[in-house]
Specification:
Residues 14-73 form the HTH tetR-type domain. This protein is mainly α. The chain has helices at 3-29, 37-44, 48-54, 58-83, 86-105, 108-117, 122-142, 152-165, 172-186. The longest helix is centred in the first third of the chain and has 27 residues, at 3-29.
Amino acid sequence: MADSTYRALRADAARNRDQLIAVATRVLMATENGPSMRAIAREAGVGIGTLYRHFPTRESLVDAVYRDQVVRLTTSARELLAKLPPPAALRRWMNLFGDWIATKNGMLDTLLTMIESGAIAHGDTQAELHAAINQLLDAGRATSEFRQDISEEDIAASLIGIFTVAPLPEHETMANRLLDILMNGIRTAP
């Protein structure tokens, strides 16, 4: 096999994997019961064999989706701060956090089993998310737009509470209102 053909296949395989993760994320966000692997493959436009080559078990797919979402959340804090002032960056990041929570709802049973077995280190994820929140808070404190006494734990707990009471996508209006109230509490008084 020529070297360029090998690279093309590898690029194609990477695209298939990325497509499977994107589709699984979208499908998991839209359902409370985990969809079938066959339905995910069909929606991604690949055969079931391709899905199983990349993700031999439901757990391996859930793990990939979960890790992809955590990476997106943690890197987006820096990316948002590069484009937006701290309050707008934090508010936009809160929406991404809500999407992450909604995605987790469709894979909750599998995810909980994986956390209990130690396959996913929940403490590591929590530390990564707290670091992202702290980065956003520090930027707002540096510009005197955020209160000094708000911690990343305060924000994380508030977000979990909001998205538990107003899960996405069905309660998006209520979630947005609650997020705006939270943002008002974070900001320094004018």
